[in-house]
Amino acid sequence: MSKSLLKSVAATTLPAVVAVILAQACTSSTSAQSSDNTNPIEGLWNSEVTITDCQTSAVMRQFRAMNMFIHGGTLTDTDVQPPGTHGPGFGTWQDSGGSRYASVFEFFRYNPDGSFAGTNKVTRTITLSVDGGGFTSTIAIDVEDPTGATLNSACGTESATRVR
After folding, report:
1. Residue 45 has what pLDDT?
2. CATH assignment of 40-162?
3. Which of 40, 82, 97, 137 could form a disulfide with 126 if both were Cys (CB 3.0 to 4.6 A apart)?
4. Beta strands in 5-145 (DSSP E)
């Protein structure tokens, strides 16, 4: 083989070989994790959320949401409310013992003109069902302005089922 042909083969196959090796290394470390290291709440959940007035219990709004509880204690949240009103939620979760969990996440809120309106801080106490296929939670929400000052609060409940 000529030197230029060898250089051409090396240039085109080396990146592919490196990619395969990296993919195998990542797959091996992921599959090497024992199921003993996973927590029952980890995974994707689809939920029905009801937000209420804390004083009167009057329903303020209801909507669907999705939560991803990630190994190590982080979570992401999104919902079906208009995307122009707020961004995705990012937060943490922790095992409180038994079938109980605590989670806190925040998301940015926006005014109708798209300007920054502040944040919502959502605190939940979660109870996992006995079979692990669902959970319920109580919700406390602090609505904050752009400086972090609390404008008002709301309460709520959630009922979720496991997606994955």
Report:
1. 98
2. 2.40.128.120
3. 137
4. 43-52, 59-70, 74-79, 89-97, 100-110, 116-128, 134-144
Domain segments of the chain as ranges:
3-32, 40-162
Q: What is the pLDDT of residue 80?
A: 95
Q: What's the Cα-to-Cα distance from 62 to each of 68, 118, 125, 130, rounded to whole Å?
A: 20, 21, 18, 26
Token match 């980890």: residue? 42
Tokens of 120: 């919502």
Q: Give the integer Cα–Cα distance in Å for 52 and 112.
A: 23
Are 74 and 92 contacting, i.e. CB atoms less than 8 angstroms apart? yes
Distance from C-alpha of 24 to C-alpha of 16, rounded to nearest angstrom? 12
Residues 18-63 pLDDT 10s:
333 333 433 333 333 344 578 999 999 999 999 999 999 999 999 9
Residue 5 has pLDDT above 50, yes or no: no
Q: Would you state the pLDDT for residue 36?
A: 58
